[in-house]
Amino acid sequence: MAQPVIKTRLTQPDATQRLTAQGLHPLLARLYASRGVIQKDTLSSEWKSLLDPKLLTQNQQAAELLADHIETKKTLLVVADYDCDGATACAVAIRGLRALGAHVDYLVPNRFETGYGLSPAVVDLACQHRSGKPDLIITVDNGIASVDGVAEARLQNIKVLITDHHLPGDALPNAAVIVNPNQPGCNFPSKNLAGVGVMFYVLMALRAELRQRGHFVSKPEPKLDALIDLVALGTVADVVKLDQNNRLLVNRGIDRLRRGFMQPGIRALFAVAGRQPQLAVASDFGFIVGPRINAAGRLADMSVGIECLITDDEDRALVLARELDTFNRERRKIEATMREQALASIGEIDAQPNSAVVCVFDERWHQGVVGIVASRLKEQFYRPALAFAPGDAGEIRGSGRSIPDVHLRDVLDLVSKRQPGLIKKFGGHAMAAGLSLSQEDYAPFVLAFNQAVIDFTGKSRFEAVIETDGTLESGYANAQVAQMLEEQVWGSGFPNPLFVDEFTVDQQRLLNDKHLKLTLTRDRQRFEAIWFGHSETVGDRVRVVYRLATNHWNATVTAQLIIEHVASL
């Protein structure tokens, strides 16, 4: 693969000056301004700054439907998706609805048996649930594409409330209520709510409705902010864009963790990972806690993850967290093997004419891990990637990851329209999607997918770009500034600061045969640096793209550079 192009993010001097004058640290002012922030008050993490639940289309109808079922003591069943967003959305629903007086249980489909979403098969399982046949099914992080499943629920005399955030297809399910910021006609200012965020908004509307009905006259009103650690976890783990509203939700969640308030399951997951919640940063949700929850859905049963998040028993939470950690270790081993096999099957992809995509399939692969393999291939080759594994008899199931140039779901939709029936099912977002095919259709699909990407973008090659924030002023390269940066909420659509500078390499050595540890010098200032997952040594003079981070060791906090890219000079 060609070397990436390093570009400097455009600075905004006027906004920087304004933010500095409003009391922000000059470096923070520069970083925020280049990410579109022009006023300090838009950085507020106060609850009053949260977008009003009334702005979310059909949220009030959802509140009334739920309130009616609570008051008449009807049975509710949450049907969850099997990733971290789905698990946290389920936990928020269970904890929140029970606190508000509902009789509610959950069902999480097995991805290997019933597929994605509220299918007719899942409705059948709901009718046989341990809690009895439900009066109302509540989908979380799924449902917008479940036309057949909702139809089956209606036949079974079960109402359906859909809470979702995925993009809808050509037809909407005939549900009692649909709450989804991305459904047609919804003008909610943030289209980037995760599934867990949508469910949290439903709970806020429900509490207001119950308050209006006098539900809390003789009993205390539950504090929904106790659920915000779960909301923050699902939001970060699902890699939705961290717009102003999402950053507020994540900020509140991290603040609770740092103050020692969290669900027992989250405390336990930090413990098994050897991390301290009081030092939590947003990326911990994405790289530490989220993968352990996801591993349950990938390899086994997501109910293990959900049980970990809904239990109030600290000891049980720790047992379940250890089980999730074991799943994650196994997932890593499977992923490493699959990735090696994928790379061996691809060959020299850049030598292939008009190869705008990467598609791989192997009959030995685990369908719960193909999404991670696709993500790794996307990163390595910088083009849309799909990885497939065997599904039901004669069927293969794929998961894809994309690059900013290519809206993956729209490309799959184009393929589906051009060749109806080639794709059995598909759904997802701009950057991630899932689909199923007949195994015999794999080869024609790859050709059709590749051509659709070329036609969609006008390109068969894509240039990898690393966008940086330019040089880091030497006076700011210290532990205090590193800690200040880590305390902010960075993530998808609001990227973690990356700096680029030239250094002299004083020392370099390998850690565990896979990480390069370096000592670098710039302007007579020495830095410790590490390049994770890179085992090749570098030259004496280098241009480095890096993050400024803290390193905690023996009660001492120092600055450390986390290397993202190196070019020898």
Task: Provide keyphrases for this structure.
569 residues; inorganic pyrophosphatase (n-terminal core); Diaminopimelate Epimerase, Chain A, domain 1; five-stranded mixed sheet; alpha/beta; 20% strand; OB fold (Dihydrolipoamide Acetyltransferase, E2P); five-stranded parallel sheet; 3 domains
Give your account of this protein's structure:
The protein has 569 residues and is an alpha/beta fold. It has three domains: 56-326, inorganic pyrophosphatase (n-terminal core); 347-457, Diaminopimelate Epimerase, Chain A, domain 1; 466-568, OB fold (Dihydrolipoamide Acetyltransferase, E2P) (Beta Barrel). Helix content is 39%, strand content 20%. It has helices at 13-21, 26-33, 59-71, 84-99, 120-127, 147-155, 195-212, 228-237, 244-258, 264-272, 282-299, 303-310, 314-346, 370-381, 408-418, 442-457, 479-486; strands spanning 5-8, 75-80, 103-107, 136-140, 159-163, 177-179, 358-361, 385-390, 395-401, 425-428, 432-438, 465-468, 499-511, 515-522, 525-531, 541-553, 556-568. The strands form four sheets. It has a five-stranded parallel β-sheet, with helices on both faces. It has a five-stranded mixed β-sheet with strand order 7-8-9-11-10, sandwiched between helices. Helix 6 (147-155) links the parallel strand 4 and strand 5. Helix 3 (59-71) packs across helix 7 and helix 11 (282-299) packs across helix 12 (303-310). The chain is globular, with a radius of gyration of 24 Å. It starts with a strand and ends with a strand. The model has no long low-confidence stretch (mean pLDDT 94).
